[in-house]
C-alpha cells in the first residue's frame, strides 16, 4: 500500500521535505477536453471570436498557471520549470478541443501538478472566453498522461484509454 506523504507523523497535512532527494530530469504531460457546439468550435477555428485568438490566450493562461501552481495548490513546492508547453487541437469530428500540456525541470520533485494545472486553466480560459456564446460547454477528462523521472518511476496512460 502506498503511503500518502503529505501527512506527517502527527496525522497533519504538511509540505514534504525534498531536500535529501536527488535532482533528476522530470517531465509530465496532462490533457483536458473541452466539448462544445460545432458552431462555437468553428468560430474559434476561424478566428472570428470578438475577444480575439482563443487558442493563443488559453495557451498563455496555461503556461502562466503552471508557473504559479505552488500558489494555487496547497503543499506544492515552488518550482523553477525549464519548459512549459501547451498545445491546443480542434477536433471537429468530436466537437471538442483537446489540450495537452507538458512540463519539465531538473529538480527534486515532480511536475505532475504543474502539467494538470496548465491543462485545466487552459480549458477554463476557453470556457471563459466562449461562455457568452455558449454556456453549456463541458470540460472533461482532465488527467495525467505520463510522468518520468524521480523515485516513484515512470507512468504512462495506456494509449487505448
TrEMBL record:
A matching Pfam family: MoaC
Residues forming the catalytic site: 128
Domain Molybdopterin cofactor biosynthesis C (MoaC): 15-150
GO biological process terms on file: Mo-molybdopterin cofactor biosynthetic process
Lyase found in the keyword field: yes
InterPro entries (alphabetical): MoaC, MoaC_bact/euk, MoaC_sf, MoCo_biosynth_MoaA/MoaC, Mopterin_CF_biosynth-C_dom
Principal EC category: lyase
Record-listed substrate binding positions: 75-77, 113-114
Keywords: Lyase, Molybdenum cofactor biosynthesis
Reaction(s) catalysed by this chain's protein: (8S)-3',8-cyclo-7,8-dihydroguanosine 5'-triphosphate = cyclic pyranopterin phosphate + diphosphate
GO molecular function: cyclic pyranopterin monophosphate synthase activity; GTP 3',8'-cyclase activity
Record-linked SUPFAM superfamilies: Molybdenum cofactor biosynthesis protein C, MoaC
Listed EC numbers: 4.6.1.17
Listed pathway(s): Cofactor biosynthesis; molybdopterin biosynthesis
Function: Catalyzes the conversion of (8S)-3',8-cyclo-7,8-dihydroguanosine 5'-triphosphate to cyclic pyranopterin monophosphate (cPMP).
HAMAP family according to UniProt: MoaC_B
PANTHER family in alphabetical order: MOLYBDENUM COFACTOR BIOSYNTHESIS PROTEIN 1 (PTHR22960:SF0), MOLYBDOPTERIN COFACTOR SYNTHESIS PROTEIN A (PTHR22960)
Protein family: Belongs to the MoaC family.
Record note on quaternary structure: Homohexamer; trimer of dimers.
Name this protein carries in UniProt: Cyclic pyranopterin monophosphate synthase
Organism: Izhakiella australiensis
